[in-house]
Structures are given as C-alpha cells and as structure tokens.
C-alpha cells in the first residue's frame, strides 16, 4: 500500500456529522457517482478568479475581456483534456443530461438511434422524438458489440444513425467496450456519442483513440462544482441544426423583414448552442479540474482507485448476505462504483443506517437506470422503485439497491469504515 499515492485534497474532507449513537465523525462521502466533492485546487482557482469575473463575449471593459479569454481558454483546455480533433467543437452546457438533449436536437432527418436499455436515463431518454431501437442488456462486452452489429446490419444503410453508449456504468462501474462499439458503428455508417459522465472522472479519455464522434460529461462528477457540463465532438450536425436555445450570443445578425417578421443568421461555432450569458465560473472550474487531474497523472489516479476497489470488493465478498450487482462478471474492468443488495435488508434502510450510525453517505434506489437495475435484481419490469419502494420481506428480492462510489479524493479510512459498517 506504500506505493499508492495520497488522495487529492477535496472540499468537505474535514466536515463532521452527528451520529445517532452519540458523538460525531468526519463525513465519509462515498457517493461520488452522484456528485464528487470539488477538488480544493479547483476551488482555489475559482476563488482567485472570482473577484475578476465579468460578462463573456458582450463587454468592452477589461474584466469582460479577461473573462472572455478565460472562457475561451477553458474551451481549449477541455479540448486538450479530451484529445479533440482539430475541427471538433466544445460546447459548454449545464450537464451530461443537457449535452445529450442538445445532441438529440441536432439529429438529421430520419436518423435512427440505437441505445442499450442498460443506459442511465440521461442517455436512454433524450431520443424519444427519433426512431429509437432499445437494445437488450448484454451479459458480456463481446455480446454488446455483437448485439449492436446485428441491429445496425438490419437498419436502412442509407439513412443517418447514431449510437449512444456509456463509458462506465453508473450502477456497476463496469467499463463498456467503447472502442469496439465505435468501430462497429462506423463500419455500418453510424455515428457514436459517448456518455462519459462516469468515465471521465476515473479514467483517461481520448476522443481520437476511442474514435467516438461526441463525448458528454458533467463538471460536478469531475471534481468541479455544479452547473456546467460539456458536449464535444463533430461540428457538422451541430453547425447545421437549429440552435438549442434561441437568443443573444447564438445569433450573428438579426434583421426586420419587409413583411414585419424577423430574419436570423445563427453562428456556426459553438456559440450557436450557447445562447444567453454563459456560466463562466462553471467552464473555468471544469478546465481547472481537467488540468488538476492531468497533472496528478492518470496512472497514479487509476492505481489508487483500483486499490480502493480491491478493498471494497474483498470486504463485500466476505459478507455472505451481500450480493454485488454485475452485468459483465467479476473480471470486468471497472471504476469505483459498486452497487449491491443485502439479503434480509431493505436497501433504503441499510443506506440510512450507514449514514446515521457511521457518517457514511451512499445512495440507494434505482440510480436513474431503472431497466438496468431491475434486470440486475431480477425484479418485475413494472415494479415500483426509487423513492418509497415497498419493503422486501426476508428472502424476497430487493426492489432497489445500495451504491457506494469513490474516487481521487477518497482516503482509505472511508472505504475501511464502510466495509466494517457493512460487516
Ligand atoms: N450519465 C451517467 C452514466 C450518469 O451517471 C449521470 C449522472 N448520474 C448522467 C448521465 C447525468 O448526469 P447529470 O445529472 O450531471 O446530467
């Protein structure tokens, strides 16, 4: 363990919380998959810049110019972090959900969309206005590629198509075979968008190496504060689609017509989909997080996280009542996101006890991936879930699960406390 680096300093690392059993403990934030604590370094960068921030792309003053430069440099830093191609666009959005909804508005006419039923709702649902094919849950990465290939082979080969796939599952933490799925998509003339909400915080990510057309991720899972996300990738669909939002900043020229109407020329750059005053602090903090992670070094970060994963999985495996949820099996490569159920326990009560008795914050529910969690639990596809799931009687199947997730800021003590608490 001596070879494993120290956790990166994050906000909230000294926060103490009261226990029902008396006394207090430092809070163990083990819900990184929902939102990771911001890196102290990101917070310091934002604090240093905050006194100087001003309007972006719409002010002649010094601070407006400074902010415009910082905003555009943030775009370049994200492009570098993702290994973007020269003609890719980087659009600042509110979140992964926002990014994928934006992309859904740019689909060419008659575009067919292919998405596995195992996706997070942010990847599963934005395509409802298109012709969507929902693919059944594969049980191996190879089956995922074969399933996609079969579905693409059956499609109209002349029309446009898009595949949407996650890089790392927000339920099982398992990595998806993105490079192979991208190759399959391209071999059949389809495009592919990567939902990197859970991949980007845990794993190096290179848009060219993976050969995906777009990448979407959220700042608040990448150790930056809430409120900003990214959609990066091919410019062609983005450049020709109607703007995501109509308004100032997206429009290059607006003129009154003779007939009384209004004509608009929209920008073709990223500004086309960034109408309104942008979230300059959000963009700046994402760029700061990208730089901090790159500087910390992915080899080191991945080694540390794998060390924590080993501890948690070994600890859970030692408790016979615990069942870890998995699609691809024990040997699948994974990030620090692990979901499980405990025989004889209601998952919500279990999670509440971890909080109240041990100061540990995890998540319970169906994790915005209802079809996947129901498949993994073997529960009725119509079963109630999320909030207010009825109690499973002893020996009955759970209707929801518990998720523990961690990353670059997690000290060993947090996962050790978690494993002991479960025991
Ligand atoms: N995709 C995945 C895989 C996720 O885990 C999440 C968040 N849980 C999202 C998309 C949506 O991210 P956001 O809530 O930041 O839009």
From TrEMBL:
Protein name: Cysteine desulfurase
Organism: Streptomyces roseochromogenus subsp. oscitans DS 12.976
PANTHER family given in the database record: CYSTEINE DESULFURASE, CYSTEINE DESULFURASE 1, CHLOROPLASTIC
UniProt keyword list: Pyridoxal phosphate
Required cofactor names: pyridoxal 5'-phosphate
KW Plastid (keyword) present: no
Domain Aminotransferase class V: 30-418
């Amino acid at each position: 363990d001596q070879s494993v680096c120290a956790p990166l300093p994050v906000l909230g690392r000294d926060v103490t919380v009261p226990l029902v059993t008396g006394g207090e403990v430092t809070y163990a934030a083990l819900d990184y998959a929902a939102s990771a604590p911001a890196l102290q370094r990101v917070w310091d960068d934002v604090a240093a810049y905050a006194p100087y921030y001003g309007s972006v792309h719409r002010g002649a003053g010094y601070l407006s110019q400074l902010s415009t430069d910082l905003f555009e440099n943030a775009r370049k830093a994200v492009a570098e972090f993702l290994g973007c191609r020269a003609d890719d666009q980087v659009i600042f959005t509110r979140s992964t959900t926002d990014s994928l909804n934006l992309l859904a508005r740019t689909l060419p006419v008659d575009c067919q969309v292919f998405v596995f039923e195992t996706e997070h709702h942010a990847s599963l649902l934005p395509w409802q206005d298109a012709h969507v094919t929902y693919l059944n849950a594969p049980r191996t990465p190879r089956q995922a590629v074969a399933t996609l290939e079969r579905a693409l082979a059956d499609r109209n080969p002349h029309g446009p198509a898009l595949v949407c796939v996650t890089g790392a599952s927000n339920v099982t933490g398992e990595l998806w075979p993105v490079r192979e799925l991208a190759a399959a998509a391209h071999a059949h003339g389809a495009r592919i968008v990567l939902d990197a909400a859970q991949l980007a915080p845990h794993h190096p990510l290179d848009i060219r190496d993976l050969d995906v057309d777009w990448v979407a991720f959220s700042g608040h899972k990448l150790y930056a504060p809430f409120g900003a996300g990214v959609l990066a990738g091919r410019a062609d669909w983005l450049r020709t689609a109607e703007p995501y939002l109509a308004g100032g900043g997206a429009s290059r020229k607006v003129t009154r017509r003779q007939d009384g109407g209004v004509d608009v020329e929209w920008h073709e750059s990223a500004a086309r989909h960034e109408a309104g005053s942008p979230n300059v602090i959000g963009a700046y903090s994402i760029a700061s997080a990208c730089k901090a992670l790159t500087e910390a070094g992915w080899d080191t970060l991945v080694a540390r996280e794998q060390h924590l994963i080993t501890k948690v999985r070994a600890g859970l495996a030692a408790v016979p009542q615990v069942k870890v949820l998995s699609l691809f099996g024990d040997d699948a490569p994974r990030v620090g996101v692990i979901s499980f159920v405990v025989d004889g326990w209601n998952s919500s009560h279990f999670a509440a006890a971890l909080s109240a008795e041990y100061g540990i914050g995890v998540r319970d529910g169906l994790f915005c991936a209802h079809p996947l969690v129901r498949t993994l639990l073997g529960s009725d596809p119509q079963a109630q879930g999320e909030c207010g799931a009825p109690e499973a009687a002893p020996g009955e199947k759970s209707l929801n699960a518990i998720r523990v997730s961690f990353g670059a800021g997690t000290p060993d003590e947090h996962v050790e406390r978690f494993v002991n608490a479960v025991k």
